[in-house]
Amino acid sequence: xxxxxxEGPTKLSGSVEIAGAKNAAxxxxxxxxxxxxxxxxxxxxxxxxxxxxxxxxxxxxxxxxIKNNSVKVDTCCLTNTKATYDIVKTMRASILVxxxxxxxxxxxxxxxxxxxxxxxxxxxxxxxxxxxxxxxxSIEAGYVLAKAPNGLKGAHIVFDKITVTGTANIVMAAxxxxxxxxxxxxxxxxxxxxxxxxxxxxxxxxxxIGTTELIIYGxxxxxxxxxxxSVIPDRIEAGTYLCAAAITNSEVTVKKVRADHLExxxxxxxxxxxxxxxxxxxxxxxxxxxxxxxxxxxxxxxGFPTDMQAQxxxxxxxxxxxxxxxxxxxxxxxxxxxxxxxxxxxxxxxxNSATIAGKIDxxxxxxxxxxxxxxxxxxxxxxxxxxxxxxxxxxxxDRGYEGLEKKLQKLGAKIKRLKE
Length: 420
Ligand code: UD1
Description:
420 residues
């Protein structure tokens, strides 16, 4: 197993290019199940989660051809509709194949994803919505068995909670359903918006893109022709490098980004005393005279993303004063706190709220990554911790960050990948 060894403290400088968004690429890859043609997707991030979903599609009988950061996926000749446990258990987002498989074939079996380090993460809202569209769903031997022999029918879906992959799943199901589907309380995340935009440019009529109410007119199982397109930049990767610049109080430029996807984060960094220079596709963070403490509450887009909570909490250890971070989306997303405490951080947890006292001089230690974003938070802490920090179990990191150690090395970090 690999681990990362980081020597700190360090200053960073220079620029880093941001990859395509993992969370946009995943539904867009699942969307190829709706296509009548071979689909070319550019700006695909080279990360494990993407490979996992492509492997799942290959297991279903799709042909997949990856070159650099482009992939061609052809789902014309699928031979089976069963997404098996061995793949789904490694990545919950595999559930994204449920809606399109069911809509296209009228039946499928998808393993239940099971638990996850950051909380329960049920899929009840996905299933309820598909039932409203006429699906018969049962759970047998750990699998969701879904049937809609006469195809799915348009319906009015009102999500009780905003769900990102739930919205994406139902948008894809609705695209091939018969008639009109209305999704009320739809997710506004840029990744969902891109999915809708690509489907729209492929001939699916969708109103309300980028709003909380989506109206989708289905094709009644007619597959659509999807032209080549590029995945939007990864706002969480960009945010993580902005936090790397901030925690080391350095000047760094992130390139190939969309600042309009990062407004909540940019505003918090400005409140902490950093200056941000923004161009149409770059953001430069400039050091603060003094890093100020801050309060953050995670929310759905356009609010502050839960996927940036761990990194921001770590940044708060270097701010002067007391910061409070409230996690509203996932009940167990503070696993990084006990690891940060091993580095000397002063953090108190109460329910879904963390109180962070700064500024603390962190000291290097061995720490364990617990989930994807928590792992990057530990790397950020290691950049300012005195001495050597070893971050173990970085397979979590590899799920979602393309070439993290190479990008950080280029910015001047003393970081290397070693074998246990
Ligand atoms: C997606 C992102 C993940 C991000 C999360 C929240 C992908 C691949 N993953 O995850 O990185 O952290 O959005 O921004 O895009 N819920 C239910 N029932 C359901 C579905 C969700 O109760 O059927 C709850 C969840 O437990 C959670 C909340 O709704 O509390 C939001 O979850 P959701 O938006 O569905 O997260 P994901 O789509 O799994």
